[in-house]
């Protein structure tokens, strides 16, 4: 069992930045997990935003955040980050951290084994 705890969400004006953090309890296994961020806007389904492999040398992003968001990880701190720049109102959502024991980035939420509780990001226009 792996516990994930997100933090860093908040209210920001369009064009601003936020950095989300996800702390994992996985310990020495963390470096073997693919990690991802998903988001769910009100009335919409939960969608893949960004993913990163265990070593942190491969990343994947949904087109709508490419060039604005950066996913990274620190395998010493057992933490994954999502740096969000140039935020837009359409980025408003609850952001979830997810971990996959199979170390391959995929976009389907059903492929991930562990989930955090989410952190709210609200971008005002």
Textual characterization of the structure:
The protein has 125 residues and is an all-beta fold. The protein contains no helices and 11 strands. The chain has strands at residues 4-7, 10-13, 18-24, 34-40, 47-52, 59-61, 69-74, 79-84, 93-100, 114-115, 119-124. The strands form 2 sheets. Strands 2, 4, 5, 6, 9, 10 and 11 form a 7-stranded mixed sheet that branches. A hairpin with a 6-residue loop joins strand 5 (47-52) and strand 6 (59-61). It is globular, with a radius of gyration of 13 Å. The chain starts with a strand and ends with a strand.
TL;DR?
The chain is an all-beta fold. It contains no helices and 11 strands.
- Number of beta-strand segments: 11
Principal-axes shape call: globular
Reading the helices and strands in chain order gives EEEEEEEEEEE
Straight-line distance between termini: 40 Å
Low-confidence stretches: none
Query: Helix amount, in percent?
Result: under 10%
| Largest sheet geometry | 7 strands, mixed
Classify the secondary structure makeup into a structural class.
mainly beta
> How many helices in DSSP terms?
0
Radius of gyration: 13 Å
Proportion of β residues?
A: over 45%
- Mean of all residue-level pLDDT scores: 97
How is the secondary structure organized here?
Elements: E1 4-7, E2 10-13, E3 18-24, E4 34-40, E5 47-52, E6 59-61, E7 69-74, E8 79-84, E9 93-100, E10 114-115, E11 119-124
Parallel strand pairs: 2-11
Antiparallel strand pairs: 1-3, 3-8, 4-5, 4-9, 5-6, 7-8, 9-10, 9-11
């Amino acid at each position: 069992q792996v516990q994930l705890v997100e933090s860093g969400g908040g209210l920001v004006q369009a064009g601003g930045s936020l950095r989300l953090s996800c702390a994992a309890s996985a310990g020495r296994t963390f470096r073997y997990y693919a990690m991802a961020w998903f988001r769910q806007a009100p009335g919409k389904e939960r969608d893949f935003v960004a993913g990163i492999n265990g070593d942190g040398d491969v990343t994947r992003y949904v087109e709508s955040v490419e060039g604005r968001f950066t996913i990274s990880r620190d395998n010493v701190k057992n933490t994954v980050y999502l740096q969000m720049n140039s935020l837009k109102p359409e980025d408003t959502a609850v952001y979830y951290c997810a971990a996959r024991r199979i170390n391959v980035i995929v976009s389907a939420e059903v492929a991930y084994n562990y989930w955090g509780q989410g952190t709210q990001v609200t971008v005002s226009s």
